[in-house]
Write a structure and sequence with these properties.
The complex is a heterodimer.
Chain A (H helix, E strand, L loop, with lengths): L3 H10 L8 E5 L2 E5 L2 H12 L9 E4 L9 H17 L4 E2 L4 H7 L8 E4 L13 E4 L2 H10 L1 E5 L3 E7 L8 H12 L8 E5 L1 H4 L3 H10 L7 E3 L4 H7 L16 E6 L6 E3 L7 E3 H4 L6 E4 L1 H4 L2 H11 L9 E4 L4 H9 L2 H7 L3 E2 L20 E4 L15 E4 L2 H10 L21
Parallel strand pairs in A: 2-3, 2-5, 3-4, 5-6, 8-9, 8-11, 9-10, 14-15, 14-17, 15-16, 17-18
Antiparallel strand pairs in A: 1-7, 12-13
Helix pairs in contact in A: 2-5, 6-8, 12-14, 12-15
Chain B lengths: L1 E5 L6 H4 L10 H6 L9 H4 L5 E4 L11 H9 L3 E4 L4 H10 L2 E4 L12 E5 L4 E4 L2 E4 L5 H9 L2 H8 L2 H4 L3
Parallel strand pairs in B: 1-2, 2-3, 3-4
Antiparallel strand pairs in B: 1-5, 5-6, 6-7
Chain lengths: 421, 165
Protein backbone atom coordinates (compact mmCIF):
# COMPACT_ATOMS: atom_id res chain seq x y z
CA UNK A 1 0.00 0.00 0.00
CA UNK A 2 1.21 3.46 -0.79
CA UNK A 3 3.10 5.47 -3.35
CA UNK A 4 5.43 3.82 -5.86
CA UNK A 5 8.27 4.64 -3.46
CA UNK A 6 6.51 3.05 -0.47
CA UNK A 7 5.56 0.02 -2.59
CA UNK A 8 9.17 -0.49 -3.66
CA UNK A 9 10.58 -0.22 -0.13
CA UNK A 10 7.79 -2.40 1.27
CA UNK A 11 8.53 -5.19 -1.20
CA UNK A 12 12.26 -4.89 -0.74
CA UNK A 13 12.19 -4.94 3.05
CA UNK A 14 9.30 -7.40 3.42
CA UNK A 15 7.32 -5.21 5.83
CA UNK A 16 5.03 -2.21 5.40
CA UNK A 17 7.12 0.92 4.90
CA UNK A 18 5.71 4.43 5.11
CA UNK A 19 7.09 7.80 4.11
CA UNK A 20 9.12 9.39 6.86
CA UNK A 21 10.67 6.15 8.10
CA UNK A 22 14.41 5.80 8.16
CA UNK A 23 15.49 2.46 6.72
CA UNK A 24 18.71 0.70 5.86
CA UNK A 25 17.99 -1.04 2.57
CA UNK A 26 19.90 -3.32 0.21
CA UNK A 27 20.51 -1.94 -3.28
CA UNK A 28 20.82 -3.69 -6.65
CA UNK A 29 23.78 -1.71 -7.97
CA UNK A 30 26.05 1.16 -6.97
CA UNK A 31 27.54 3.35 -9.70
CA UNK A 32 30.29 5.94 -9.70
CA UNK A 33 32.01 7.79 -12.52
CA UNK A 34 35.41 9.19 -13.32
CA UNK A 35 35.01 12.26 -11.10
CA UNK A 36 33.06 10.89 -8.13
CA UNK A 37 34.67 7.43 -8.30
CA UNK A 38 38.13 8.38 -7.01
CA UNK A 39 36.74 10.04 -3.84
CA UNK A 40 34.52 6.98 -3.31
CA UNK A 41 37.51 4.68 -3.73
CA UNK A 42 39.54 6.64 -1.18
CA UNK A 43 36.66 6.57 1.32
CA UNK A 44 36.14 2.84 0.68
CA UNK A 45 39.80 2.10 1.37
CA UNK A 46 39.50 3.78 4.78
CA UNK A 47 36.91 1.17 5.74
CA UNK A 48 39.50 -1.61 5.26
CA UNK A 49 36.93 -4.23 4.29
CA UNK A 50 36.40 -6.38 1.19
CA UNK A 51 34.12 -5.15 -1.55
CA UNK A 52 30.45 -6.18 -1.16
CA UNK A 53 29.98 -7.67 -4.62
CA UNK A 54 32.26 -6.76 -7.52
CA UNK A 55 29.50 -7.59 -10.02
CA UNK A 56 27.20 -4.96 -8.50
CA UNK A 57 29.69 -2.11 -8.60
CA UNK A 58 29.77 -0.08 -11.80
CA UNK A 59 32.29 2.49 -12.98
CA UNK A 60 31.76 4.70 -16.00
CA UNK A 61 34.26 7.07 -17.61
CA UNK A 62 32.08 9.79 -19.06
CA UNK A 63 32.64 13.18 -17.46
CA UNK A 64 36.12 13.60 -18.92
CA UNK A 65 36.36 11.13 -21.77
CA UNK A 66 38.92 10.71 -23.13
CA UNK A 67 41.09 12.31 -20.46
CA UNK A 68 42.03 15.84 -21.49
CA UNK A 69 44.62 16.62 -18.81
CA UNK A 70 47.25 14.74 -16.87
CA UNK A 71 45.10 15.17 -13.76
CA UNK A 72 42.08 13.60 -15.46
CA UNK A 73 44.21 10.72 -16.71
CA UNK A 74 45.28 10.20 -13.11
CA UNK A 75 41.67 9.91 -11.96
CA UNK A 76 40.96 7.37 -14.68
CA UNK A 77 44.03 5.39 -13.73
CA UNK A 78 42.98 5.37 -10.07
CA UNK A 79 39.61 3.88 -11.03
CA UNK A 80 41.12 1.30 -13.40
CA UNK A 81 43.61 0.14 -10.78
CA UNK A 82 40.88 -0.20 -8.17
CA UNK A 83 38.65 -2.15 -10.56
CA UNK A 84 41.49 -4.52 -11.37
CA UNK A 85 42.41 -4.99 -7.71
CA UNK A 86 38.85 -5.75 -6.58
CA UNK A 87 37.66 -7.64 -9.67
CA UNK A 88 35.11 -5.05 -10.79
CA UNK A 89 34.28 -5.99 -14.38
CA UNK A 90 31.56 -3.43 -15.13
CA UNK A 91 33.87 -0.64 -16.25
CA UNK A 92 32.56 1.32 -19.24
CA UNK A 93 33.79 4.09 -21.47
CA UNK A 94 31.09 4.22 -24.10
CA UNK A 95 28.69 6.90 -22.99
CA UNK A 96 26.99 8.72 -20.14
CA UNK A 97 26.68 6.67 -16.95
CA UNK A 98 22.89 7.08 -16.72
CA UNK A 99 22.28 6.03 -20.30
CA UNK A 100 24.53 2.98 -19.86
CA UNK A 101 22.85 1.96 -16.58
CA UNK A 102 19.59 1.74 -18.49
CA UNK A 103 20.96 0.24 -21.72
CA UNK A 104 23.04 -2.42 -19.99
CA UNK A 105 20.08 -3.76 -18.02
CA UNK A 106 21.13 -2.73 -14.51
CA UNK A 107 17.82 -0.96 -13.98
CA UNK A 108 14.63 -2.92 -13.32
CA UNK A 109 11.17 -1.88 -12.16
CA UNK A 110 10.91 -2.22 -8.39
CA UNK A 111 14.66 -2.11 -7.99
CA UNK A 112 16.77 0.20 -5.84
CA UNK A 113 19.89 1.68 -7.43
CA UNK A 114 22.27 4.31 -6.08
CA UNK A 115 24.69 6.43 -8.07
CA UNK A 116 27.42 8.89 -7.21
CA UNK A 117 25.88 11.42 -9.55
CA UNK A 118 22.89 13.64 -8.94
CA UNK A 119 21.14 12.60 -12.16
CA UNK A 120 20.86 9.01 -10.94
CA UNK A 121 17.17 9.88 -10.62
CA UNK A 122 17.01 9.02 -14.35
CA UNK A 123 16.34 5.30 -13.74
CA UNK A 124 12.99 6.10 -12.14
CA UNK A 125 11.64 6.24 -15.70
CA UNK A 126 11.58 2.43 -15.56
CA UNK A 127 9.91 2.27 -12.14
CA UNK A 128 13.14 1.85 -10.20
CA UNK A 129 13.81 3.84 -7.01
CA UNK A 130 17.11 5.49 -7.78
CA UNK A 131 18.79 8.46 -6.19
CA UNK A 132 22.03 10.39 -6.35
CA UNK A 133 24.52 10.37 -3.50
CA UNK A 134 27.97 11.67 -2.75
CA UNK A 135 31.11 9.58 -2.91
CA UNK A 136 31.25 8.65 0.79
CA UNK A 137 27.73 7.20 0.80
CA UNK A 138 28.58 5.21 -2.33
CA UNK A 139 31.80 4.00 -0.71
CA UNK A 140 29.80 2.57 2.19
CA UNK A 141 27.51 0.84 -0.32
CA UNK A 142 30.58 -0.58 -2.10
CA UNK A 143 31.48 -2.11 1.27
CA UNK A 144 28.07 -3.25 2.50
CA UNK A 145 25.61 -3.38 -0.40
CA UNK A 146 23.28 -1.14 1.57
CA UNK A 147 22.55 2.47 2.30
CA UNK A 148 20.18 4.40 4.52
CA UNK A 149 17.16 6.29 3.28
CA UNK A 150 14.59 8.53 4.84
CA UNK A 151 11.70 7.16 2.76
CA UNK A 152 10.39 10.27 1.04
CA UNK A 153 6.89 11.60 0.71
CA UNK A 154 5.75 12.05 -2.89
CA UNK A 155 4.61 14.82 -5.17
CA UNK A 156 2.30 13.39 -7.84
CA UNK A 157 2.53 15.21 -11.17
CA UNK A 158 -0.13 14.44 -13.76
CA UNK A 159 0.63 15.58 -17.29
CA UNK A 160 -2.63 15.99 -19.17
CA UNK A 161 -3.38 16.02 -22.87
CA UNK A 162 -1.24 15.52 -25.93
CA UNK A 163 1.92 17.42 -26.76
CA UNK A 164 1.44 20.11 -29.41
CA UNK A 165 3.99 20.48 -32.24
CA UNK A 166 7.35 21.77 -31.02
CA UNK A 167 6.61 20.77 -27.41
CA UNK A 168 8.45 17.86 -25.80
CA UNK A 169 8.80 16.20 -22.38
CA UNK A 170 11.63 18.66 -21.62
CA UNK A 171 9.09 21.49 -21.80
CA UNK A 172 6.70 19.71 -19.43
CA UNK A 173 9.49 19.24 -16.90
CA UNK A 174 10.59 22.89 -17.24
CA UNK A 175 6.98 24.00 -16.77
CA UNK A 176 6.82 21.98 -13.55
CA UNK A 177 10.10 23.52 -12.37
CA UNK A 178 8.76 26.97 -13.27
CA UNK A 179 5.79 26.36 -10.97
CA UNK A 180 7.46 24.52 -8.09
CA UNK A 181 10.85 26.28 -8.05
CA UNK A 182 14.36 24.85 -7.89
CA UNK A 183 13.82 23.25 -4.49
CA UNK A 184 10.15 22.42 -4.94
CA UNK A 185 10.74 18.68 -4.48
CA UNK A 186 13.69 18.84 -2.07
CA UNK A 187 13.76 15.66 0.05
CA UNK A 188 10.71 14.35 -1.84
CA UNK A 189 10.02 11.73 -4.47
CA UNK A 190 8.11 12.65 -7.61
CA UNK A 191 5.68 10.42 -9.49
CA UNK A 192 5.22 11.34 -13.14
CA UNK A 193 1.84 10.19 -14.48
CA UNK A 194 -1.20 11.15 -16.50
CA UNK A 195 -2.08 10.38 -20.08
CA UNK A 196 0.83 12.34 -21.55
CA UNK A 197 3.27 10.12 -19.62
CA UNK A 198 1.30 6.98 -20.48
CA UNK A 199 1.74 7.87 -24.15
CA UNK A 200 5.47 8.53 -23.80
CA UNK A 201 8.31 6.29 -24.89
CA UNK A 202 10.87 5.22 -22.32
CA UNK A 203 13.34 7.70 -23.88
CA UNK A 204 10.90 10.51 -23.14
CA UNK A 205 10.30 9.32 -19.59
CA UNK A 206 14.04 9.22 -18.99
CA UNK A 207 14.05 12.97 -19.68
CA UNK A 208 11.38 13.58 -17.01
CA UNK A 209 13.03 11.37 -14.41
CA UNK A 210 16.41 12.94 -15.18
CA UNK A 211 15.20 16.49 -14.57
CA UNK A 212 13.53 15.54 -11.28
CA UNK A 213 16.71 16.26 -9.33
CA UNK A 214 16.89 19.73 -10.84
CA UNK A 215 13.95 20.79 -8.71
CA UNK A 216 15.35 18.95 -5.75
CA UNK A 217 13.69 15.54 -6.14
CA UNK A 218 15.28 12.53 -4.49
CA UNK A 219 13.73 10.16 -7.04
CA UNK A 220 11.42 10.58 -10.04
CA UNK A 221 9.32 7.56 -10.88
CA UNK A 222 7.02 6.40 -13.66
CA UNK A 223 4.78 3.34 -13.38
CA UNK A 224 6.12 0.45 -15.44
CA UNK A 225 3.74 -0.46 -18.29
CA UNK A 226 3.69 -1.86 -21.82
CA UNK A 227 6.28 0.73 -22.95
CA UNK A 228 8.58 -0.46 -20.16
CA UNK A 229 7.94 -4.06 -21.20
CA UNK A 230 8.74 -3.29 -24.82
CA UNK A 231 11.96 -1.60 -23.74
CA UNK A 232 13.22 -4.17 -21.23
CA UNK A 233 11.51 -7.35 -22.37
CA UNK A 234 8.94 -9.10 -20.22
CA UNK A 235 11.35 -10.85 -17.91
CA UNK A 236 12.13 -8.15 -15.40
CA UNK A 237 8.96 -6.09 -15.51
CA UNK A 238 6.87 -6.60 -12.40
CA UNK A 239 3.42 -5.27 -11.73
CA UNK A 240 3.96 -2.07 -9.78
CA UNK A 241 1.40 0.64 -9.11
CA UNK A 242 0.62 3.14 -6.40
CA UNK A 243 -1.98 1.56 -4.10
CA UNK A 244 -4.21 4.00 -2.20
CA UNK A 245 -1.32 6.46 -2.13
CA UNK A 246 -1.27 9.55 0.04
CA UNK A 247 0.51 12.34 -1.76
CA UNK A 248 2.14 15.38 -0.24
CA UNK A 249 1.10 17.50 -3.22
CA UNK A 250 -0.77 17.06 -6.50
CA UNK A 251 0.31 18.99 -9.59
CA UNK A 252 -1.43 19.01 -12.97
CA UNK A 253 0.05 20.36 -16.17
CA UNK A 254 -2.01 20.77 -19.33
CA UNK A 255 0.35 19.90 -22.17
CA UNK A 256 -2.08 21.06 -24.88
CA UNK A 257 -1.70 24.76 -24.08
CA UNK A 258 2.04 24.76 -23.51
CA UNK A 259 4.61 26.44 -25.72
CA UNK A 260 8.30 25.51 -25.68
CA UNK A 261 9.86 26.45 -22.32
CA UNK A 262 13.33 27.92 -21.92
CA UNK A 263 15.29 27.88 -18.65
CA UNK A 264 17.18 31.18 -18.73
CA UNK A 265 20.43 31.97 -16.94
CA UNK A 266 21.42 31.60 -14.22
CA UNK A 267 18.93 29.17 -12.65
CA UNK A 268 16.85 26.19 -13.72
CA UNK A 269 13.67 27.80 -12.38
CA UNK A 270 14.14 31.03 -14.32
CA UNK A 271 11.83 29.60 -16.99
CA UNK A 272 10.16 31.64 -19.72
CA UNK A 273 8.08 30.94 -22.79
CA UNK A 274 10.15 30.64 -25.95
CA UNK A 275 8.48 33.74 -27.41
CA UNK A 276 9.95 35.88 -24.63
CA UNK A 277 13.57 35.08 -25.52
CA UNK A 278 13.44 34.51 -29.29
CA UNK A 279 16.19 36.34 -31.14
CA UNK A 280 18.79 36.02 -28.36
CA UNK A 281 22.19 35.67 -30.06
CA UNK A 282 24.03 32.36 -29.47
CA UNK A 283 27.72 31.49 -29.65
CA UNK A 284 27.19 27.77 -29.05
CA UNK A 285 24.45 25.16 -29.28
CA UNK A 286 24.94 21.84 -27.49
CA UNK A 287 22.76 18.84 -28.31
CA UNK A 288 23.32 15.93 -25.94
CA UNK A 289 23.51 14.99 -22.22
CA UNK A 290 21.67 12.53 -20.01
CA UNK A 291 18.60 14.72 -20.45
CA UNK A 292 18.34 14.87 -24.25
CA UNK A 293 21.12 12.91 -25.94
CA UNK A 294 19.14 9.83 -26.95
CA UNK A 295 18.22 8.58 -30.42
CA UNK A 296 14.78 10.21 -30.41
CA UNK A 297 16.40 13.55 -29.55
CA UNK A 298 18.98 13.17 -32.31
CA UNK A 299 16.19 12.22 -34.73
CA UNK A 300 14.42 15.52 -34.02
CA UNK A 301 17.59 17.52 -34.62
CA UNK A 302 18.53 15.58 -37.76
CA UNK A 303 15.07 16.26 -39.14
CA UNK A 304 15.62 20.01 -38.90
CA UNK A 305 19.24 19.89 -40.09
CA UNK A 306 18.56 17.78 -43.18
CA UNK A 307 19.50 19.84 -46.24
CA UNK A 308 20.33 22.92 -44.14
CA UNK A 309 23.43 24.58 -42.66
CA UNK A 310 23.94 25.63 -39.06
CA UNK A 311 24.68 29.33 -38.60
CA UNK A 312 28.38 30.01 -39.23
CA UNK A 313 28.63 32.23 -36.14
CA UNK A 314 27.39 29.49 -33.81
CA UNK A 315 29.39 26.44 -32.80
CA UNK A 316 27.01 23.50 -32.87
CA UNK A 317 28.13 20.43 -30.95
CA UNK A 318 26.31 17.10 -31.00
CA UNK A 319 27.19 14.42 -28.44
CA UNK A 320 25.27 11.12 -28.55
CA UNK A 321 24.51 9.81 -25.06
CA UNK A 322 26.10 6.43 -25.71
CA UNK A 323 27.91 4.29 -28.26
CA UNK A 324 24.64 2.48 -28.92
CA UNK A 325 22.88 5.79 -29.63
CA UNK A 326 25.83 6.92 -31.75
CA UNK A 327 25.83 3.76 -33.86
CA UNK A 328 22.08 3.89 -34.34
CA UNK A 329 22.46 7.53 -35.42
CA UNK A 330 25.17 6.42 -37.85
CA UNK A 331 22.96 3.68 -39.26
CA UNK A 332 20.07 6.11 -39.71
CA UNK A 333 22.26 8.69 -41.44
CA UNK A 334 21.91 11.32 -38.71
CA UNK A 335 25.64 11.69 -38.12
CA UNK A 336 26.18 12.45 -41.81
CA UNK A 337 23.33 14.96 -41.65
CA UNK A 338 24.88 16.68 -38.61
CA UNK A 339 28.30 16.88 -40.24
CA UNK A 340 26.97 18.06 -43.59
CA UNK A 341 25.05 20.75 -41.72
CA UNK A 342 28.32 21.95 -40.17
CA UNK A 343 27.91 20.59 -36.64
CA UNK A 344 30.76 19.05 -34.66
CA UNK A 345 30.03 15.50 -33.56
CA UNK A 346 31.96 14.39 -30.47
CA UNK A 347 32.41 11.00 -28.84
CA UNK A 348 29.65 9.69 -26.58
CA UNK A 349 29.84 11.04 -23.04
CA UNK A 350 28.87 14.08 -20.99
CA UNK A 351 30.39 16.47 -23.54
CA UNK A 352 30.22 20.23 -22.91
CA UNK A 353 27.47 19.94 -20.23
CA UNK A 354 29.80 20.47 -17.30
CA UNK A 355 32.57 22.57 -18.82
CA UNK A 356 35.29 20.08 -18.16
CA UNK A 357 36.38 19.10 -21.63
CA UNK A 358 35.33 20.27 -25.08
CA UNK A 359 32.90 23.06 -25.91
CA UNK A 360 33.96 25.23 -22.96
CA UNK A 361 32.42 28.72 -22.97
CA UNK A 362 34.48 31.88 -22.77
CA UNK A 363 33.58 35.08 -20.86
CA UNK A 364 30.55 36.85 -22.31
CA UNK A 365 29.57 33.92 -24.50
CA UNK A 366 26.06 32.56 -24.64
CA UNK A 367 24.98 28.97 -25.24
CA UNK A 368 21.77 27.08 -25.67
CA UNK A 369 21.91 23.51 -24.44
CA UNK A 370 19.59 20.50 -24.31
CA UNK A 371 21.14 19.54 -20.94
CA UNK A 372 19.90 20.18 -17.42
CA UNK A 373 21.99 22.85 -15.69
CA UNK A 374 22.52 26.55 -16.41
CA UNK A 375 24.30 27.77 -13.28
CA UNK A 376 26.94 30.44 -13.82
CA UNK A 377 30.21 28.67 -14.58
CA UNK A 378 28.59 25.34 -15.40
CA UNK A 379 29.97 25.13 -18.96
CA UNK A 380 33.09 27.25 -18.49
CA UNK A 381 33.41 30.93 -17.67
CA UNK A 382 31.19 32.23 -14.87
CA UNK A 383 30.61 35.19 -17.19
CA UNK A 384 28.99 32.96 -19.82
CA UNK A 385 25.22 32.44 -20.07
CA UNK A 386 23.37 29.16 -20.63
CA UNK A 387 19.82 28.66 -21.88
CA UNK A 388 18.21 25.21 -21.62
CA UNK A 389 15.69 24.01 -24.18
CA UNK A 390 14.22 21.03 -26.00
CA UNK A 391 16.00 19.45 -28.99
CA UNK A 392 13.75 21.09 -31.61
CA UNK A 393 14.44 24.56 -30.22
CA UNK A 394 18.15 23.68 -30.13
CA UNK A 395 18.03 22.65 -33.79
CA UNK A 396 16.14 25.74 -34.95
CA UNK A 397 18.44 27.96 -32.87
CA UNK A 398 21.59 26.35 -34.31
CA UNK A 399 20.32 27.10 -37.81
CA UNK A 400 19.39 30.70 -36.97
CA UNK A 401 22.38 31.59 -34.74
CA UNK A 402 19.90 32.88 -32.19
CA UNK A 403 17.11 31.42 -30.07
CA UNK A 404 14.49 30.47 -32.63
CA UNK A 405 11.08 28.83 -32.80
CA UNK A 406 11.13 25.45 -34.56
CA UNK A 407 7.40 25.81 -35.28
CA UNK A 408 8.18 28.64 -37.71
CA UNK A 409 10.44 26.48 -39.86
CA UNK A 410 9.01 24.30 -42.62
CA UNK A 411 8.21 20.86 -41.19
CA UNK A 412 11.30 18.72 -40.58
CA UNK A 413 12.48 16.65 -43.51
CA UNK A 414 11.74 12.96 -43.08
CA UNK A 415 15.01 11.61 -41.76
CA UNK A 416 16.63 8.74 -43.60
CA UNK A 417 16.10 5.45 -41.79
CA UNK A 418 18.37 2.47 -41.72
CA UNK A 419 21.28 4.05 -43.58
CA UNK A 420 21.86 3.47 -47.26
CA UNK A 421 22.12 7.13 -48.15
CA UNK B 1 34.40 33.10 17.04
CA UNK B 2 34.67 33.60 13.29
CA UNK B 3 33.47 36.01 10.65
CA UNK B 4 30.47 35.77 8.35
CA UNK B 5 30.91 35.13 4.63
CA UNK B 6 27.46 35.82 3.26
CA UNK B 7 26.06 34.25 0.08
CA UNK B 8 22.64 34.41 -1.59
CA UNK B 9 20.07 31.85 -2.72
CA UNK B 10 20.71 28.88 -4.99
CA UNK B 11 24.47 28.62 -4.48
CA UNK B 12 25.30 25.61 -6.69
CA UNK B 13 28.10 23.12 -6.34
CA UNK B 14 29.31 24.55 -9.67
CA UNK B 15 29.81 27.88 -7.86
CA UNK B 16 31.44 26.22 -4.85
CA UNK B 17 33.92 24.26 -6.97
CA UNK B 18 33.66 24.60 -10.76
CA UNK B 19 33.88 21.38 -12.78
CA UNK B 20 37.31 21.97 -14.16
CA UNK B 21 38.80 22.43 -10.67
CA UNK B 22 37.55 19.18 -9.16
CA UNK B 23 39.81 16.92 -11.17
CA UNK B 24 41.58 15.95 -7.96
CA UNK B 25 40.84 14.31 -4.64
CA UNK B 26 43.34 16.49 -2.78
CA UNK B 27 41.44 18.46 -0.14
CA UNK B 28 44.00 21.25 0.07
CA UNK B 29 43.89 21.85 -3.69
CA UNK B 30 40.09 21.80 -3.60
CA UNK B 31 40.09 24.29 -0.72
CA UNK B 32 42.24 26.71 -2.71
CA UNK B 33 39.74 26.59 -5.59
CA UNK B 34 36.66 27.07 -3.39
CA UNK B 35 34.39 29.74 -4.90
CA UNK B 36 37.27 30.55 -7.27
CA UNK B 37 35.00 32.31 -9.77
CA UNK B 38 31.95 33.25 -7.74
CA UNK B 39 34.08 34.95 -5.09
CA UNK B 40 37.74 34.87 -6.12
CA UNK B 41 39.14 36.23 -2.82
CA UNK B 42 37.30 33.61 -0.75
CA UNK B 43 40.01 30.99 -0.31
CA UNK B 44 42.72 33.54 0.47
CA UNK B 45 40.70 35.49 3.04
CA UNK B 46 38.91 32.74 4.97
CA UNK B 47 40.44 32.04 8.35
CA UNK B 48 39.87 28.93 10.40
CA UNK B 49 36.57 29.25 12.24
CA UNK B 50 34.81 31.50 9.72
CA UNK B 51 31.20 30.73 8.83
CA UNK B 52 29.22 30.80 5.58
CA UNK B 53 25.71 32.22 5.96
CA UNK B 54 23.55 31.62 2.89
CA UNK B 55 19.97 31.75 1.64
CA UNK B 56 17.88 28.97 0.21
CA UNK B 57 18.89 25.73 -1.54
CA UNK B 58 22.60 25.94 -0.70
CA UNK B 59 24.64 23.33 -2.56
CA UNK B 60 22.12 22.60 -5.29
CA UNK B 61 23.14 20.74 -8.42
CA UNK B 62 25.84 18.15 -8.83
CA UNK B 63 26.45 15.47 -6.18
CA UNK B 64 30.17 16.29 -6.19
CA UNK B 65 31.44 15.74 -2.66
CA UNK B 66 34.34 17.94 -3.68
CA UNK B 67 32.08 20.87 -2.74
CA UNK B 68 31.81 20.30 1.02
CA UNK B 69 35.41 19.01 1.04
CA UNK B 70 36.54 22.31 -0.53
CA UNK B 71 34.57 24.42 1.96
CA UNK B 72 35.93 22.50 4.91
CA UNK B 73 39.50 22.56 3.58
CA UNK B 74 39.26 26.32 3.05
CA UNK B 75 38.84 26.63 6.82
CA UNK B 76 35.10 27.16 7.15
CA UNK B 77 33.78 26.01 10.54
CA UNK B 78 30.11 25.77 9.59
CA UNK B 79 27.60 26.58 6.87
CA UNK B 80 24.35 28.13 8.11
CA UNK B 81 21.68 28.32 5.40
CA UNK B 82 17.94 28.84 5.17
CA UNK B 83 17.78 25.52 3.35
CA UNK B 84 20.16 22.98 1.83
CA UNK B 85 19.92 20.80 -1.26
CA UNK B 86 19.54 17.21 -0.11
CA UNK B 87 22.70 15.68 -1.53
CA UNK B 88 24.94 18.53 -0.38
CA UNK B 89 23.54 18.35 3.15
CA UNK B 90 24.11 14.63 3.34
CA UNK B 91 27.61 14.91 1.87
CA UNK B 92 28.55 17.65 4.33
CA UNK B 93 27.42 15.58 7.33
CA UNK B 94 29.20 12.52 5.90
CA UNK B 95 32.58 14.25 5.69
CA UNK B 96 32.29 16.20 8.93
CA UNK B 97 31.46 19.69 7.67
CA UNK B 98 29.00 21.31 10.07
CA UNK B 99 25.77 22.43 8.44
CA UNK B 100 22.98 24.19 10.28
CA UNK B 101 19.60 25.08 8.86
CA UNK B 102 18.30 28.39 10.19
CA UNK B 103 15.68 30.56 8.56
CA UNK B 104 15.82 33.70 10.67
CA UNK B 105 19.51 34.51 10.67
CA UNK B 106 19.86 35.45 7.01
CA UNK B 107 18.42 38.94 7.21
CA UNK B 108 20.22 39.71 10.47
CA UNK B 109 23.85 39.37 9.35
CA UNK B 110 26.28 41.01 6.98
CA UNK B 111 29.61 40.03 5.56
CA UNK B 112 32.32 40.21 8.19
CA UNK B 113 30.06 40.12 11.26
CA UNK B 114 31.57 38.17 14.15
CA UNK B 115 29.68 34.89 14.62
CA UNK B 116 29.89 31.76 16.68
CA UNK B 117 28.09 28.51 15.90
CA UNK B 118 27.72 25.64 18.33
CA UNK B 119 27.09 22.73 16.06
CA UNK B 120 25.80 20.31 18.67
CA UNK B 121 23.12 22.61 20.10
CA UNK B 122 22.50 24.62 16.92
CA UNK B 123 23.03 27.85 18.88
CA UNK B 124 24.29 30.76 16.79
CA UNK B 125 25.47 34.05 18.32
CA UNK B 126 25.87 37.02 16.03
CA UNK B 127 25.64 40.81 16.54
CA UNK B 128 24.44 40.37 20.10
CA UNK B 129 21.53 38.20 19.00
CA UNK B 130 21.02 34.52 19.50
CA UNK B 131 19.48 32.20 16.94
CA UNK B 132 18.77 28.50 17.13
CA UNK B 133 19.17 26.31 14.08
CA UNK B 134 16.98 23.31 13.39
CA UNK B 135 17.88 20.12 15.17
CA UNK B 136 19.50 17.62 12.81
CA UNK B 137 17.80 14.26 12.27
CA UNK B 138 18.83 11.17 14.24
CA UNK B 139 21.12 9.76 11.55
CA UNK B 140 22.87 13.09 10.99
CA UNK B 141 23.34 13.39 14.74
CA UNK B 142 24.83 9.89 14.96
CA UNK B 143 27.25 10.66 12.12
CA UNK B 144 28.23 14.02 13.64
CA UNK B 145 28.93 12.38 16.97
CA UNK B 146 31.18 9.82 15.28
CA UNK B 147 32.92 12.47 13.15
CA UNK B 148 32.23 11.15 9.66
CA UNK B 149 30.09 8.45 8.07
CA UNK B 150 33.21 6.37 7.53
CA UNK B 151 34.07 6.67 11.26
CA UNK B 152 30.54 5.63 12.21
CA UNK B 153 30.31 2.62 9.89
CA UNK B 154 33.85 1.52 10.64
CA UNK B 155 33.31 1.51 14.38
CA UNK B 156 29.68 0.48 14.70
CA UNK B 157 28.39 -0.68 11.30
CA UNK B 158 24.81 -0.22 10.16
CA UNK B 159 23.56 -1.05 13.66
CA UNK B 160 24.42 2.53 14.59
CA UNK B 161 21.85 3.78 12.10
CA UNK B 162 19.34 0.95 12.50
CA UNK B 163 19.04 1.69 16.19
CA UNK B 164 18.07 5.32 15.61
CA UNK B 165 15.67 4.53 12.75
Amino acid sequence: MGTLTEEIFTRRLGRPIHAGEIVVAPVDYAMAHDVTGPLAIEAFRQLEVPIWDPDRVIFVFDHILPANTVAAAGLHRQVREFAAEFGVKHVFQEGICHQLMVEKGFVRPGGIVVGADSHSTTYGALGCFSAGFGSTDIAVTFATGRTWFRVPETIRIDLRGGLPPGVFPKDLALQVIRRLGAEGANYLAVEWGGEAVEAMSVDDRLTLANLTVDFGGKAGLCEPDEHTRAYLGDAGVIDLHPVQPEYRQLVEVDAETLEPQIACPPAIDNVRDLSEVEGTHLDEVFVGSCTNGRIEDLAIVAGYFEGRQVHPGTRTIVVPASKKVYMEALARGYIQTFMEAGALVMNAGCGPCLGRQHGVLGPGERALSTSNRNYAGRMGSAQAEIYLANPAVAAASALAGEIADPRLLPPPQPSPQGGGR
Amino acid sequence: MGRVFKFGDGISTDAIIPGRFNVTTDATALGKACFIEARPDFATTVQAGDVIVAGRNFGCGSSREHAPVAIKAAGIHAVVAQSFARIFYRNAINIGLAVVQCEAIYGAVQDGDPISVDVRSGRIDVNGKMFTGETPGPVATAIMEAGTLIDLIKTRGWAAIEEVS
